[in-house]
Design goal:
The chain is of the alpha/beta class and about 250 residues long. The protein has two domains: about 1-80 and about 165-249, HAD superfamily/HAD-like (Rossmann fold); about 85-165, Hypothetical Protein, Haloacid Dehalogenase-like Hydrolase, Chain: A, domain 2. Helix content is about 40%, strand content about 20%. It has helices at about 25-35, 50-55, 85-100, 130-145, 170-180, 200-205, 230-249; strands at about 1-5, 40-45, 60-65, 70, 110-115, 120, 150-155, 160-165, 190-195, 210-215, 225-230. The chain is globular and about 60 Å long. About 40% of the residues are buried.
């Protein structure tokens, strides 16, 4: 079972999320992998499920969005019950955030993404002089939802996120899928490759169970056992797995 993050793992980080495209050779490696009956490929992203499916666009891959909350084949949201009122919270927070940020910077320099159950504020293109105030506003807008205990703020790679305060993350998603596949009586080796802080939960739960690989970028430390230096090296690793699996058949 090969678990893969998308941004910064399969595709290079882009200043605009919609421009983060997966290279042809990486796509080719994924197609080779899913043709092998002994390999299952999972893409688990912080993006909305529909977005990551469109970006990867390969049938035969298991997809999960919103850090594992949205699971393909399990309804709009995975095995956790997310209250409808949380979606209302997200819409309210987005309106206030946009209004307040308009007073300090042009909105074209940032991306505010309503994922339904998660609100993401991307600030990779924001001027350094605006960052402190931007973060202050985000935490102020989020405060009432966090104090109530229903939401939490997560800091990821050049993005702040307001998300449900529930015991579910990429690590829990991996364990959930491992249990599903283990029920079939198969011996499983999980491999997880990712670059973001959200991937650390998967590195932690898979310790001693499989192989974890950190894609080094702006962050240099990780709980993963191994590391690669770029998305190009991820592609090389996937090609190596595909070739090794083919020779073993």
């Amino acid at each position: 079972m090969i678990f893969l993050d998308y941004d910064g793992t399969l595709a290079p980080i882009s200043k605009r999320p919609e421009l983060a495209l997966m290279p042809y050779n990486t796509r080719r490696a994924l197609r080779r992998l899913i043709k092998n009956r002994r390999i299952s490929v999972f893409v688990v992203s912080g993006r909305v499920l529909s977005h990551v499916k469109k970006l990867v666009g390969i049938k035969g891959i298991y997809y999960a969005g919103c850090h594992g909350l949205e699971i393909e084949g399990s309804g709009s949201v995975g095995p956790v019950a997310v209250l409808k009122k949380l979606k209302v919270f997200i819409k309210q927070a987005k309106r206030v955030l946009i209004k307040d940020l308009m007073n300090i910077m042009p909105l074209k320099t940032l991306d505010i993404e309503d994922k339904g159950i998660i609100l993401s504020l991307h600030y990779r293109r924001v001027k350094k002089r605006h960052l402190k105030e931007l973060k202050r506003i985000f935490y102020r807008v989020s405060k009432s939802y966090v104090v109530s205990g229903e939401m939490i703020v997560m800091k990821n790679k050049k993005v702040l996120e307001l998300e449900p305060n529930i015991k579910w993350d990429k690590g829990m998603y991996c364990l959930y899928m491992l249990r599903r596949f283990s029920a079939k009586g198969e011996k499983i080796l999980p491999i997880y490759i990712g670059d973001d802080r959200t991937d650390e939960t998967a590195f932690k739960v898979l310790k001693g169970k499989g192989i974890t690989v950190f894609v080094r970028g702006e962050r240099k430390t990780s709980l993963a056992q191994y590391y690669v230096n770029s998305t190009n090296e991820v592609k090389n690793f996937l090609q190596l797995i595909a070739e090794s699996a083919k020779n073993a058949d």
